[in-house]
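Posting for a labmate who doesn't have an account.
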Amino acid sequence: MDVAQLKVYDFLKIKLGDQEAEMLISYIETKAEKKEIDKTLSKEEAKLLSTKEDLYKLGTSLEVKIESSKTEILRWYIYGMLGSISTTVLLVKLLFS
């Protein structure tokens, strides 16, 4: 116990008695520790929670990735079509020549 707690304990011991004062001090300490733990949890929970700004940034980055994926798919589709067309033209030339 620190000095402030000892003074409170001495005052309560006079008013309530030794055992009751000790129980009351113990109860107060327990409540204070619980409140401190709750504050710590609140800070950790706050780190995990998303803000609207975080969600907006995430949405924007996802849109950019999806757009680049669409472009990549379109590029490979065009390459495939050009390959198919050139193969068809070559086969037609070979058959009719």
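Reply:
Got it, the structure tokens are right above this. Residues 50-97 form one domain.
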